[in-house]
Amino acid sequence: MIVGITGATGAPLAYKVLEILNDLNVNIHLMVSKWGARTIEIETDKTLKDFSELATRVYNSRDQAACISSGSFRTDGMIIVPCSMKTLSSISVGFADNLISRSADVILKEQKPLILVTRETPLSQIHLENMLKLSRMGVSIFPPMLTFYNHPKTIDDMTAHTAYRILDQLGIEHPDAKRWKNN
């Protein structure tokens, strides 16, 4: 699984996704943008090294010669969590100016699952149009939303639930995921 972390708010969610994938023994190919690294510093008590230790392999987000920038790289899909509006825009117009947007471009052309955990509020018309355009191409647009049917007691409960739902998009199930129950 390819995972990109960009500079939008949501670093704790990115860590939770990495943690769950790691626990499930999924091979993780990780890239963190410059601003993604800065957001990790601001939003968590973890270091970039802590995030990197959960990955099978880590790439410099400026290294467009990395193996994940090629359609010949075998992967089951890609998650960008969080996905900034800058990255969303770049993917939407095919402006593959870094390894994260180039990898997403390759995922699109190879018709593999791409999940963008978009982070912005409120959304402008430009954001919505870019999301709609990518959704029509088969991209899963996944703004992390709070849920209450699972009766969260902590922020970690909410983060874990959202991470489980993100992984659902790839057919990756976790036994701790709480599902809607209408009693």
Q: Strand content of the residues, in percent? A: 5-15%
Strand order of the largest sheet: 3-2-1-4-5-6
Number of domains: 1
Helix content range:
40-55%
CATH class descriptor name: Alpha Beta
User: Nearest-angstrom radius of gyration?
Assistant: 15 Å
The N- and C-terminal alpha carbons lie at a distance of: 36 Å
The topology string of helices and strands comes to EHEHHEEHHEHEH
Count of discrete alpha- or pi-helical segments spanning 4 or more residues: 7
Shape verdict: globular
Rounded average pLDDT: 96
Identify the CATH homologous superfamily: Flavin prenyltransferase-like
CATH architecture classification: 3-Layer(aba) Sandwich
- What's the total count of β strands? 6
Largest sheet: 6 strands, parallel
Low-confidence stretches: none
Structural class: alpha/beta
CATH topology name: Rossmann fold
